[in-house]
């Protein structure tokens, strides 16, 4: 396939911005348009639940691309105007305008999941405006109720505890972040949240909202708080695209190069995209910062016809309760876990704990709690699926 003359990137978050940068890095000389639904300059999302929320950073501190960088990239920016449709060779914008192109990259991200009957003024956290609204609400609050014990909820809880608020976290599952960690390591993560000063309620089933500050649980208990945040994950933002023959059930289904299956000249990256995962034999959405950046590089090189980039290991991190949690590799492939460093898995101190995930006798992932110097040492061993004897020799 010859290089396209014009690429439209739909979505001005990390995935979209990195795609633009990687296209230029790969030698693309054609026209690029970047379309974003939000009016803000492209910004980084991880600080929204941390530095922006606590006031350590302002919106200007998290901008991904400033005016000078945009000028160098020679990109046509369309901000504050969502895309409402994508047809063969053209996108339609909410203001009635259209953009014609011969290649498209969808990077629309995800939208927060909501609970049945959730009041409009109960907070969610996905955008800069969401973070600023929550920060304002917490300014004069003394208590916070978080529904969902994943990373977003726990990061917000961590910051709120640090400001002296009484914080309760409701988690419906037996351990928080079960999908990321599994049961055993999820239990360690739960201890981190509890030891951080949070009232963590596990197996807590929320049945209804009585109002924007009060919820009722399945056992009849009612909990009230000055501020309520729902953080139960996010769904891929695909409602705007109705394309016959494209599977969008769990994100836009793509091959291992990001090409959208059932289309021609369309790719997808980031939280909206479900890429073919050969190791798992299914299409998977990787909702992590590094995944969006890695996918952008792969897609850009595919568009220009350059040599494919070698896939990198999945990586995620989260800063909360005074330490950094890091995960490297495919935790979901592990059928057993073992302590590599520290005592957290056996009930001891959490800081300094590193856990290995094994599929049979081969290392597929590690997770560390405040142990960055150790986590990185296992990268090469995970990449080659090292035998457990070699893994334990590193201890």
Proportion of helical residues? 10-25%
Shape by Cα distribution: globular
The secondary structure category is alpha/beta
Largest sheet: 5 strands, parallel
- Span between N and C termini? 49 Å
Oligomer kind: single chain
CATH topology of the largest domain: FAD/NAD(P)-binding domain
Identify low-pLDDT runs.
none
In order across it, which strands form the biggest sheet?
Answer: 3-2-1-7-18
Strand content: 25-35%
Q: Under the CATH scheme, which architecture of the largest domain would be assigned?
A: 3-Layer(bba) Sandwich
Number of helices: 10
Overall pLDDT confidence: 94
Instruction: Assign the CATH class of the largest domain.
Output: Alpha Beta
Notes on the protein architecture:
The structure is a single chain. Helix content is 24%, strand content 30%. The protein has ten helices and 25 strands. Helix 1 packs parallel to helix 7. The protein is of the alpha/beta class. It folds into three domains: 6-111 and 234-304, FAD/NAD(P)-binding domain, CATH 3.50.50; 114-230, 3-Layer(bba) Sandwich (FAD/NAD(P)-binding domain), CATH 3.50.50.60; 322-393, FAD/NAD-linked reductase, C-terminal dimerisation domain (Enolase-like, domain 1, 2-Layer Sandwich).
SSE layout and pairing:
Blueprint: E1 6-10, H1 14-25, E2 31-36, H2 51-54, H3 67-73, E3 75-79, E4 83-87, E5 90-93, E6 98-100, E7 103-106, E8 110-112, H4 128-139, E9 143-147, H5 151-162, E10 166-171, H6 178-195, E11 199-202, E12 206-211, E13 214-217, E14 222-224, E15 227-230, E16 234-236, E17 252-254, E18 266-268, E19 273-277, E20 282-284, H7 289-304, E21 315-320, E22 323-329, E23 336-341, E24 353-359, E25 362-369, H8 372-375, H9 379-383, H10 388-393
Helix pairs in contact: 1-7
């Amino acid at each position: 396939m010859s290089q396209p003359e014009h690429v439209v990137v739909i979505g001005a978050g990390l995935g979209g911005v990195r795609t633009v940068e990687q296209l230029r890095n790969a030698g693309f000389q054609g026209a690029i348009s970047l379309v974003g639904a939000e009016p803000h300059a492209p910004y980084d999302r991880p600080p929204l639940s941390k530095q922006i929320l606590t006031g350590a950073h302002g919106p200007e501190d998290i901008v991904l691309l400033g005016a000078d960088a945009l000028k160098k990239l020679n990109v046509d920016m369309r901000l504050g105007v969502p895309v409402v449709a994508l047809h063969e060779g053209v996108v339609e914008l909410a203001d009635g305008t259209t953009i014609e192109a011969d290649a498209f990259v969808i990077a629309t991200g995800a939208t927060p999941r909501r609970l049945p009957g959730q009041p409009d003024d109960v907070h969610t956290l996905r955008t800069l405006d969401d973070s600023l609204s929550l920060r304002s609400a917490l300014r004069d609050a003394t208590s916070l109720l978080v529904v969902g014990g994943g990373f977003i909820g726990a990061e917000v809880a961590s910051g709120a505890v640090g400001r002296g608020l009484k914080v309760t976290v409701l988690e419906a599952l037996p351990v928080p972040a079960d999908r990321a960690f599994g049961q055993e390591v999820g239990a360690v993560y739960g201890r981190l949240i509890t030891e951080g000063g949070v009232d963590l309620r596990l197996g807590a089933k929320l049945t209804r909202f009585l109002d924007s500050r009060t919820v009722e649980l399945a056992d009849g208990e009612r909990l009230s708080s000055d501020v309520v945040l729902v953080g139960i994950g996010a769904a891929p933002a695909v409602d705007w695209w109705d394309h016959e023959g494209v599977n969008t059930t769990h994100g836009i289904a793509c091959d291992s190069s990001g090409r959208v299956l059932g289309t021609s000249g369309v790719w997808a990256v980031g939280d909206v995209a479900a890429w073919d995962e050969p190791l798992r034999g299914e299409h998977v959405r990787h909702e992590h910062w590094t995944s969006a950046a890695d996918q952008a590089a792969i897609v850009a090189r595919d568009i220009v016809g350059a040599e494919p980039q070698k896939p990198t290991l999945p990586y995620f991190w989260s800063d909360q309760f005074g330490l950094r949690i890091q995960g490297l590799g495919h935790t979901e492939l592990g059928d057993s876990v073992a302590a590599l460093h520290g005592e957290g898995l056996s009930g001891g101190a959490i800081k300094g704990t590193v856990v290995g995930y094994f599929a049979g006798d081969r290392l597929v992932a590690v997770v560390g709690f405040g142990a960055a110097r150790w986590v990185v040492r296992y990268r090469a061993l995970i990449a080659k699926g090292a035998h457990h004897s070699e893994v334990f020799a590193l201890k």
